[in-house]
Amino acid sequence: MARNEELFNAIMNGKRKDVAVLVQAEVNAGTNVGTILMDSMIPAMREIGARFSRNEVYVPEMLIAARAMQAGLNIIDPLLTKSGHESLGKVAVGSVKGDLHDIGKNLVAMMVKGAGYEIMDLGVDCDIAKYDEAVSNGAQVIMLSALLTTTMPYMKEIVTHFKAKGSSVKILIGGAPVTQDYANEIGADGYATDANQAVAAVEKALGKKS
Ligand code: B1M
């Protein structure tokens, strides 16, 4: 599908209600939700970030764009969720301490949930105690999201913490500045560039697929 310019601009301009209407219209027209996300919605977030880097927009504009994006994701969320299936496993997901970005984390949570896993959404600004609690409550995998170069190092602290405890929990990491090399460096069990790959990483970590 070509980019839906109206939807792209509505996200960029933070028009929450318009975004909801436009996403619903695409869904009603039978457009694949992945296509809506990849062709129009995620590019809008990238563009707002690029404009922020060029000092053309500031934090408030990024914030209202994020809220508009979330309004669209709220429509997509139930469509991705499989119903009537037994959970394939328990997965906790959170943005690490100091990081308030949650759009990518929410998207990852939706896709993993849609693939049949039970999601424990820990929210943003998660310290080690939060992940610890999730593991005590049965999480077999924890997914760490970081969007800032300044919050990435906390991922290493989390991995070190669980390794020192001898925990069997699988730790997967992701987020815009995170790389496979970084995952290798800190000893994480896996890395994913996007929400689709995150599903594959969970399946691999739990031995559901080779
Ligand atoms: Co912020 N911000 N922001 N921001 N923000 C970025 C990240 C930035 C790149 C913008 C820029 O300069 N171009 C920059 C970071 C620079 C850096 O660290 N190198 C930045 C900055 C600097 C900041 C502040 C410091 C600004 C300030 O206050 N001066 C501040 C920090 C706040 C904090 O966290 N403590 C800040 C604040 C904010 C808002 C609150 C205004 C808002 C967030 C609102 C919200 O999330 N509810 C915001 C936004 C919206 C952005 C941008 C524009 C968009 C992020 C986004 O939603 N992307 C962003 C620019 C950009 O990313 N190009 C930017 C869309 C989303 C679908 O993609 O999150 O990458 P993403 O997630 C992807 C993958 O990364 C992956 O899958 C997702 C789906 O495909 N993924 C995982 C993510 N997590 C994963 C976990 C996994 C696996 C995959 O686990 C296994």
Task: Provide key terms for this protein.
Methyltransferase, Methionine Synthase (B12-binding Domains), Chain A, domain 1; 210 residues; 55% helix; 2 domains; 5 strands; 14% strand; Rossmann fold; 9 helices; five-stranded parallel β-sheet; binds CO-5-methoxybenzimidazolylcobamide; alpha/beta
Can you offer a commentary on this structure?
With 210 residues, the chain is an alpha/beta fold. It has two domains: 5-83, Methionine synthase domain (Methyltransferase, Methionine Synthase (B12-binding Domains), Chain A, domain 1, Orthogonal Bundle), CATH 1.10.1240; 90-205, Cobalamin-binding domain (Rossmann fold, 3-Layer(aba) Sandwich), CATH 3.40.50. 55% of the residues lie in helices and 14% in strands. It has nine helices and five strands; from the N terminus they run ααααβαβαβαβαβα. It has helices spanning 5-12, 16-28, 33-53, 59-80, 103-114, 128-136, 153-165, 180-186, 195-205, and strands at 90-96, 118-126, 141-145, 170-174, 190-192. A five-stranded parallel beta sheet has the order 2-1-3-4-5, sandwiched between helices. α7 links the parallel β3 and β4 (170-174). α4 (59-80) packs parallel to α5. The model has no long low-confidence stretch (mean pLDDT 94). It binds CO-5-methoxybenzimidazolylcobamide. Residues 42, 45-46, 48-49, 52-53, 59, 62-63, 65-66, 98-105, 107-108, 143, 145, 147-149, 172-177, 192, 194-195, 198, 201 line the site of CO-5-methoxybenzimidazolylcobamide.
